[in-house]
Amino acid sequence: MTTPTALELLLSKPFTSVDARRHGLDYFDLLRHDVRHASRGLYMPEGAETALVDRVRTHLELTPGAWASHRTAASLYGLWLPHHLDDHSMLHLSKPAHLPRVRREGVVGHRVRALAGEVLEHGPGVLASSPARTWLELANELGPVSLVAFGDQLIRQPRPDFEGRSEPYTTRSALAEMLRGHPKMKGVAKCRAALEDMRVGADSVPETLLRLCLLAHGFPEPELQIVLKPSDRFSPSADMGYPGIKVAIQYDGGHHLADDQRRRDVRRDAAFRAAGWSVIVVTAEDARDDFACVRAELRAIFATRAD
User: Fold this and answer.
1) In terms of residue numbers, what domain contains 13?
2) In terms of domains, do 180 and 269 share one?
3) Alpha helix locations (H) across 86-229?
4) 9/67 same-domain check
5) 228-265, pLDDT tens digit by residue?
6) Are residues 64 and 149 in the same domain?
7) Is 75 exposed, middle or buried (0-12, 13-18, 19+ CB in 10 A)?
8) 120 and 142 share one domain
9) Are 41 and 145 within one domain?
């Protein structure tokens, strides 16, 4: 097997001129068709897909005192963003207000006031705004509904077996405390309003959107994560619903199409129906018309069951 050259090793990800010198390469070694000079002291493999975290790490190596923020931080954490913010061709990097703004090609620089605990280490060589601070940073770019949806994913209780963590990113009380620490920051008023509408228990962004849609159309606020038999640890649960009139609402996302999951869903729904509940199953298709069919079905049930 042929041993890769120093340049071939470098070309697996973005690298700096310091990295090049460390590998014994000079300026002329970098004048190749498969190397792109992206910014001062920064080189990229031409045409290759580059992981966001590698781009961030290389930029931060060249920019002492900076960290990933805004939509860049959100993507590093794997947090949902609406489509209009899901473009990472430009990195968002922040620095403390007493330092000069990052001015580099491919970077949107910010000068900010960050308090203790609002910048975290996200892997070797990568600092990023905390998930909570990222929510506040994005307040001016997110609409009111998206701001609630983004926040709900921060306070939801994760499933350790699937997500590798047992604690939520933050809590409503911690978010309220953070907002008190930034009374004059742009977007803080929008965040205060969004915090009022955030709820623990929404397991996905579509569930939040459905809940907010029902509220906007005059329905009572549904309860979240309703366990059919609270005394039974193996009891099925509903994503949301109205226990008072025995209505369970299940949002079945893409993973529910798998055969094993579909069989579990059938048993889940059958258990609720056997206990006298109506079950409304919602899919991504329903979201396309603002859940109109779901609302009509729910309105009909309310008409026959509500006092």
Assistant:
1) 1-49
2) no
3) 131-137, 144-155, 160-163, 172-180, 188-197, 205-216
4) no
5) 999 998 999 999 999 999 999 999 875 555 667 889 99
6) yes
7) buried
8) yes
9) no
Q: How many CB atoms lie within 10 A of CB 138?
A: 26
Q: Which residues does residue 280 pair with via DSSP β-bridges, in sequence order? A: 249
pLDDT digits (tens, 9 = 90+) for 44-96: 777 656 789 988 998 898 888 999 999 999 999 999 999 999 999 899 999 99
DSSP 8-state symbol, 165: -
Q: Token pair 């506040």 is at which residue? A: 136
From CA 12, how far away is CA 187, in angstroms rounded?
Answer: 39
Q: What angle do CA 73, 77, 83 make, to 5 degrees?
A: 70
Q: Cα–Cα distance between 218 and 228 in angstroms, integer?
A: 26
Q: Are 45 and 56 found together in one domain?
A: no
Q: How far apart are CA 239 and CA 200, in angstroms?
A: 12
Distance of alpha carbon 88 from alpha carbon 69, whole angstroms: 12
Main-chain dihedrals φ then ψ at residue 186, nearest 5 degrees: -60, 135
Beta carbons within 10 angstroms of residue 28's beta carbon: 7
Go through 143-182 and write b for each residue having 16 or more CB atoms within 10 A of its CB, e for each that does not: eebbbbbbbbbbbbeeeeeeeeeeebbbebebbeebbeeb
* Residue 211 and residue 298 share a domain: yes
